[in-house]
Amino acid sequence: MFLKNRNIWLLAPAVLLIGICFLFPVSWLLQRSVSEPVWGLQNYITIFSKTIYLGVLWNTVAIAGVTTLLCALIGFPVAYSMAHSSPWIRKVLIFSVLIPFWTSILVRSFAWLVILQRGGILNDFLAGIGLIAEPLDLVYNRFGVLLGMVQVLLPFMVFPLFSVITRIDGSYFSAATNLGATPIRAFFRVYLPLCLPGLATGAMLVFIISLGYFITPALLGGRGDIMIAQLIFERIDEFGDWPLASALAIVLLVGTGLLFVLVNALIKIRGRGI
Amino acid sequence: MTDPILQLSDIGKAYGPVNAARDINLDVEPGEFVTFLGPSGSGKTTTLMMVAGFTAPTQGNIQLEGKPLDPIPVWKRDIGMVFQHYALFPHMSVAQNVAFPLEMRGVAKEDRRKKVEEAMEMVGLAGFGTRLPKELSGGQQQRVALARAMVFKPRLLLMDEPLGALDKKLREHMQLEIMHLHKNLGATVLYVTHDQEEALVMSDRIAVFNAGRIEQIGTPRDLYEAPQTKFVADFIGETNFVSGTVEAVNGSVAKVRGLDGQLSTQLAEGSRAVLAIRPERLHVLGGDASGDDNSLTGTVKELIYLGQSRKAIIALEDGTEVTALEQAAQAEATALEMGAQATLGFRSSDARILADV
Fold first, then answer.
1. Are residues A204 and A142 part of one domain?
2. What is the pLDDT of residue A271?
3. Which of chain A's residues have a Cβ under 8 Å away from the Cβ of B73?
4. B90: distance to nearest CA of chain A, Å?
5. CA B123 to CA B179: how far, in whole Å?
6. Does A172 lie at the interface with B, CB-CB under 8 angstroms?
7. Residue B188 class from Cβ within 10 Å (0-12 exposed, 13-18 middle, 19+ buried)?
8. CATH number where A134 lies
9. pLDDT tens digit string along A38-63?
10. Same domain for B214 and B71?
11. pLDDT digits (tens, 9 = 90+) for B81-118
12. Which residue of A164, A172, A178 to mutate against B (max B Cβ within 10 Å)?
């Protein structure tokens, strides 16, 4: 106990950093959001009553949700293969999943533009081999946003899943089939439930990071794909509307926090079963 | 003799050039308890996995109740299995675990509950249904695994070292309990273990595995009293080996280094062989040696007091050490001294002459 108390000073740099770089600006935002132009909740009322803002909030949740779902669907087989392959192949897979982290997100998003735009590599190629007459709209829309975000966020799904799957004993699946379950039933009744902690962690990471995403949707999305972070940027950059931008930021923060608490509680309830 | 329920004919499993198991032949009678005994890597688990359907044999075929088993997938084989670490599903309650095979077979809910209750009662765990596997002790988990593997009345029950994770005392208790369950239910059991004592206690018959092959199949008594290979004699129980060449073959008897013994298999004169004799069949002369027609002399190297018995380790002239085990009462009558000369006697009918490989 004594030692624990002494060691608490080791946290000082982190506490200081969070205090200066997070708590202080957030309180400042919170204060502006309820005090300008006059004290009150008018900024929040605006956000939750105007269709344009509600649309953006919905976009944000929908894009984050679909991104999470796609990451789960694509990431699960990857994590499974990683867990069930020879050490050498596992290294190659881990390496390939990690590669996206090595390049700047800005460069990656621009690279997608080069590939996907109307005069881009992909459209040129498809037109060249005569598969399409008119170039396809692959970017500046929801498809482009999802593609870019899934590519960037996939590792956040794969690694938590991988760490859980490697620890699942293969005999559970064997036992299930031995007891009469077809491989498909064994997967859904036994294997998948055992993967849930990893799936939940991965989904939470991807969803929460998606909620505040800025660069990818800004570069690869169209007018209909504006997410909350872009809206905040716009309010400040174009209109200098700090109070509303602050309120939006607080909505994002509180929403993310609530989600975190909710998922944690769910995992805890399930965790008692696992 | 009834028709065998399970027939393994020449089955084998090769991984590339490596034979994990080969030339396995075995007929199992209905209701029989057959143990696969052998060191790790001897092919016993591979063979069990081929019966369960987790591994496909690369040679030979398996028949269950007279029908080929190979085309039937694992989930349709109706073979119960207790896994080494039980493999109880951690996210399901004990009752859900036991109900799982019934659920997969589409048994109605009401019927399911009744059968689960019966199975739980059978293994002495009535009332534990709502617990999670991790809330049970190792022995209790073992019982749940048994209940789950038996609740659907499988045609065959496989057990892969099911007691390996338990401590000695609990293991001995569970051995008896599994034997009782086996007797009461009349189930046919294939049991894998590397523990020879466990095999001797539990089995109707034992198949001793070595290097991917079955060395010998027989009742525990057969294997202990009449091992046919040096490996079997060495692996089951303790044995003294005196090595030399085969001399004076006469029907089923022969000599090695002038000592008489029984031939298990035909050996040519002059071939390398060992004479195998169990420590409890060696008598220290001076005591009750009636009927002994062989004798060995050597120097007493070690005297070990074991309470109910005494172990004497005696070095023969060529340095071979042999062990004689005598009951306490017998040992008192034959005073031995360290470093002194001692003469040991045994009956030729107790000694086996086996090929030395």
1. yes
2. 53
3. 177
4. 6
5. 12
6. yes
7. buried
8. 1.10.3720.10
9. 888 999 999 999 998 999 999 999 99
10. yes
11. 999 999 999 999 999 999 999 999 999 999 999 999 99
12. A178
